[in-house]
Amino acid sequence: MENDNQNLQRTMTSRHIMMMALGGAIGAGLFKGSSAAIDMAGPSVLIAYLIGGIILLFVMQGLAEMAVRNSDARTFRDLVQSILGKYPAYFLDWIYWKMWVLNIAAESVVAAIFLQYWLPDYPIWILALSVSILVTVVNLLSVKVFAETEYWLALIKIAVIVVFIIAGLALLLVTFGNHTAVGFSNLTDHGGFLPNGPTGLIAAMLVVIYSYGGTEIIGITLAETKNPEKAVPKAVRSTLVRIITFYLLPFFIIISLIPWNEVNGVSESPFVMVFKMIGIPGADHIMNAVVILAIVSSMNSGLYGSSRVLYTQAVDGRIPKIFAHLSKNKVPVYAILMCTLALYMGVIISLFAGSKTFEFLMGSLGYTVLFIWLIIAIAHLKSRKIQPEKTSTYAVKWFPYTTWAAIITLSAILIGIIFTTSIIVTGITLSIYIFITLTYIYKGRFHEDEVK
Length: 452
Fold this sequence. Notes:
- The model is unreliable at 1-6 (pLDDT under 50).
- The chain has one domain: Amino acid/polyamine transporter I (Up-down Bundle), CATH 1.20.1740.
- The longest helix is centred in the middle third of the chain and has 33 residues, at 283-315.
- It has helices at residues 2-6, 14-25, 28-31, 33-41, 45-69, 76-84, 86-115, 124-140, 143-173, 197-212, 228-257, 270-278, 283-315, 333-353, 356-386, 401-420, 423-446.
- It is an all-alpha fold.
- It starts with a helix and ends in a 6-residue tail after the last helix.
- It is globular.
């Protein structure tokens, strides 16, 4: 099976993986989760997203440095295993897989919710099924086709977010026609900047971490990226500036234009609400279309990431070899099909839970992103003692202070989230983690020599 692994084609460039990271992070968390975050924290949601963006920067810098120092790595497990050992690498691989398969299920439902803006007579499960089939087909094509599709989907939504920012700032600052400049009074009216206190800010961090999750997919692209030693650091630098910009500025505009306590409880995205305020005929429909494209783009990235985790597990003999089989287009077809089962599970759940499916899954996903970032940061902290330094290397400035800052902040957020999150969500997530741990113990007993 080692030959199969070598047949994965390095056809993705830095522009592809940069857009993949944006595609993974600018999805349902931004367009749908934004309502939940604003409802929890009010205007102080800006602080939550700023803190999350800084942590993300520190974690991704560490990921880039480890990728440069270990150019043979194909995925997270390869980066982490030589530093932290077998169990953390195994745990990281499977919670990352779990994150994406749950995420694509949740996002198929969110895409269906926004499709109902145009098709109110169609049930959510039929619309979610249609989106799921589309994403499956795109991923079964060649990696190059997938990467180009993801690139253009991400580019479209980024372009529209830029238009959203410009139009939103105009509504805030400029008086024209019958419109009076809104100004910034909504940031402090309606209960103040921190209307729900520190508890609301902490609770919103779970949504924030979930929203930013997906950027680390860069760590899954290593086996299919040209010159990963150069492409990955470049993609990290480019991606982080854009993500922080595309979250902080839109949120600033939303909570300045719309009273924070009027954002949640409506079916449409806050972005669609703002585009309605612009008054351009059909602007809300354009924005709704972009929201759907953004979510499909994020699902694309998620199916890619989860299938590559299964593929590398199969190549190394940890799961049945059939998942390492490559199609004529050099994609792991059975791994992809296995991961698409989550999409159709989401469709089945939505038959009973409807639009609540997303809210139910989002909490567990936030926990998982938190643990993924923690493991990456801890691995980076120890990496320089284990991995030899190269002559032309990407090095994180202010190491280890930035990494320690990420670890301490993430740990504090974890403690705060445990006390502010539904015990059902926490219990289900803990059960999944215990199950992953038990499978590791079981495999260790019978396949000690196979687990490297």
